[in-house]
Amino acid sequence: MINRVGTVCLFVSDQQRAKAFYTEKMGFELKTEAPLYPGAANLWISVLPKGSETEIILYLPDENWEHYKQVVGQSQAITLDITDMDTVAADLKKKGVIFSSEPDKQPWGTYATIVDSEGNKILLVEQPK
Question: What residues are paired with 14 via a beta bridge?
């Protein structure tokens, strides 16, 4: 039986800058920050929204994952569900988060697209009431 989504990888070019963006600007919690393996230069950094179970891994592509270097800064199809688009958007803008598309109300919900510290596009979605 599959119970839940455990992790989602977001490929980044600077793990510390990405960690700061997600913890300081987005308000995520840092769950794990440890070497990938003993002696590794790259870290396993996971962050998650407060109360969430699914973690976002801020993964720096290394020689084993070199083919993912080309996706850093590209849309990685990650959607964050939110409850109050107007409040969230105002708060993120105040913190300097860039919006590549402003909040847009549609029958299926309201969405906006933000750009993280690495240039990745993240979709924010508020479900219809």
Answer: none
What are the backbone angles phi and psi of residue 38, rounded to the nearest 5°?
A: -55, 125
In whole angstroms, give the CA distance from residue 32 to residue 28.
12
Q: Reduce the DSSP state of residue 110 to 3 states and report it.
A: strand
3-state percent breakdown (helix, strand, coil) of the chain, nearest 5 = 25, 40, 40
At 37 the pLDDT is 84
Q: What is the CATH number of domain 7-63+73-126?
A: 3.10.180.10
* Confidence (pLDDT) at 43: 93
Residues 52-99: pLDDT tens digits? Answer: 999 999 999 887 777 788 888 776 678 899 999 999 999 999 999 999
Contact indicator for 72, 120 with CB cutoff of 8 Å: yes
Which whole number is the average pLDDT over 18-42? 93
Structure tokens at 61: 């592509």
Burial bucket for residue 53 (CB in 10 Å: 0-12, 13-18, 19+):
exposed
The candidate with the shortest Cα–Cα distance to 109, out of 92, 128, 129, is 128
